[in-house]
Amino acid sequence: MNNFAMFGVVIAILAGCSNSSGSSNNNPRPGPVTNRQAAPLSTGPINSACLSSNRSARSRTLCGCIQTVANQTLSGSQQNRAAAFYNNPHQAQVIRQSDRAADERFWKAYRAYGERSEQVCS
């Protein structure tokens, strides 16, 4: 995925995803987690930042889902760094464009988190 498209994924996560399937079934289904209705919901820094954001698509379900994915894909310090993007989305662009090795490692992990969140929580 090119950098521009990945930045779009990041912005989509920050903006909040909507359930385009129209499903109202909130019961867990057997097999792999494929949407936020079946995903367990977690609390943490990303969930808190998501819930306190002014994004119209935020919900306990969405924010809890993306926190669950964060728990599976990001360290605690990476979660704190990612949570800061809710108050300062431009910082995501700064880190993405950085040449620092630490920023590149973070961005790689954050990109994987974004891709997984999009799969699980949309």
How is this structure best described in words?
The protein is mostly helical. The chain has helices at residues 3-15, 45-52, 60-73, 76-83, 90-97, 101-121. Helix 3 (60-73) crosses helix 6 (101-121). The chain is globular. It starts with a helix and ends with a helix.
Oligomer: single chain
| Average pLDDT reading | 77
What share of residues are in beta strands? under 5%
Radius of gyration equals: 14 Å
What are the secondary-structure elements, in order, as H or E?
HHHHHH
| Distance linking N and C termini | 18 Å
Shape: globular
Helix content: 55-70%
Determine the structural class based on helices, strands and strand pairing. Answer: mainly alpha
Biggest pleated-sheet summary: none
Low-confidence stretches: 1-9, 15-37
Q: How do you describe this structure in short?
A:
By secondary structure, this protein is an all-alpha fold.
SSE layout and pairing:
Layout: H1 3-15, H2 45-52, H3 60-73, H4 76-83, H5 90-97, H6 101-121
Note the main attributes of this structure.
122 residues; mainly alpha; disordered N terminus
